[in-house]
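agent> step 3/5: call structure_predict on target 'Chorismate mutase' (Gordonibacter faecis).
agent> reason: downstream docking stage needs a structural representation; sequence fetched in step 2, passing through unchanged.
tool.input:
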Amino acid sequence: MSEKDNSLAEIQEHRAKIDEIDRQIVALLNKRAGHSLVIRGLKPGAHLGLYDAKREEEIFAKVGSYNEGPLYNENLREIYATILKIMKETPSV
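tool.output (status=ok):
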């Protein structure tokens, strides 16, 4: 097998692993969204506003504390800011 063939085979292996990770990420994002929507429904009864800047900062801090790289905490903050923005825009079921 040539070096090119070896490299192509290795690329395919990594892409297959990425595809599986993406499947898991999608499942986890939907699971997270479900909990977020339940919390949104409970907030009025707890006399809480729908937006909680303090909680968002707590989420960013926790995510940063879980980080072992190679992503930087700033990258994770950007990803999570997008997740939180989308959750605010997701209609309740």
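agent> step 4/5: record observation. The radius of gyration is 19 Å.
agent> proceeding.
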